[in-house]
């Protein structure tokens, strides 16, 4: 009676070995992250979807996950991430207190520098918010430009016309329909290069002093059960990447035009 049992032991050991190897080889859980177009940082057309998407993907990969990015218009991204329960995270967003009702925030993954773009021929002074009172601003739907500028708009000190993309804003600037277009410096410069002809791009300049330096974050929906765990894992990997110097390499690659 013992002989058949003894023969089963090597088979059982082999089964356990193969099972463990299969588990180790299996890909991690796929995380679905919804984003909007925001070149050069995040873009469906860029290699690795741009440096910020590449960074987010690599950090989650180091934590044992695969990432799939889903692109949608910014005006829909927030509500889809908050309410649909289809997405594990969304990126990247400025912190606003009211957003904490719907999301948990990661640590900062990007520091943005917002400036005012304008026509060179207008020679407008827009280095400080006090200098723009009475001017007509462009803007992007679903964007906040910081509490100070948002309050100026709410108080009627400036007017703001928001549209769906950066190219439309530059078009309105060129046609004289707005005076200033607030935008993140690297985003604006990338769009000028890729979306406008050289002659038109040469007509546009920007302020030299950022009116807003802003941190941006990955947001994790409160309705998703794993959000706190994913945020903590992401933060741990982000801290390690910053400490090792790997974080900065993504933006060095951006500066070299590798995305």
How would you sum up this structure, described in words?
The protein contains nine helices and ten strands. Helix 2 (51-62) packs across helix 8 and helix 2 packs antiparallel against helix 9 (246-255). It is an alpha/beta fold. Helix 4 (147-154) links the parallel strand 6 and strand 7 (159-163). Strands 1, 2, 3, 4, 5, 8, 9 and 10 form an eight-stranded mixed beta sheet that branches. The protein has helices at residues 2-25, 51-62, 74-83, 147-154, 166-174, 185-195, 198-201, 227-244, 246-255; strands spanning 30-35, 66-71, 89-94, 103-105, 110-119, 136-140, 159-163, 181-184, 204-206, 212-221. Mean pLDDT is 90; it is low at 1-6 and 10-26. The radius of gyration is 24 Å and the shape is globular.
Throw out a few tags for this protein.
globular; 259 residues; 22% strand; two-stranded parallel sheet; alpha/beta; 41% helix; eight-stranded mixed β-sheet
Secondary structure elements and pairings:
Elements: H1 2-25, E1 30-35, H2 51-62, E2 66-71, H3 74-83, E3 89-94, E4 103-105, E5 110-119, E6 136-140, H4 147-154, E7 159-163, H5 166-174, E8 181-184, H6 185-195, H7 198-201, E9 204-206, E10 212-221, H8 227-244, H9 246-255
Parallel strand pairs: 1-2, 1-3, 6-7
Antiparallel strand pairs: 3-10, 4-10, 5-8, 5-9, 5-10
Helix pairs in contact: 2-8, 2-9
The computed structural class is alpha/beta
Please count the beta strands (DSSP E, at least 2 residues each).
Answer: 10
Oligomerization = single chain
Uncertain stretches: 1-6, 10-26
Largest sheet: number of strands, sense, barrel closure = 8 strands, mixed
> What is the residue-mean pLDDT, rounded to a whole number?
90
Taking all Cα atoms into account, the compactness measure Rg is 24 Å
In whole angstroms, the N-to-C terminal distance is 67 Å
Shape: globular
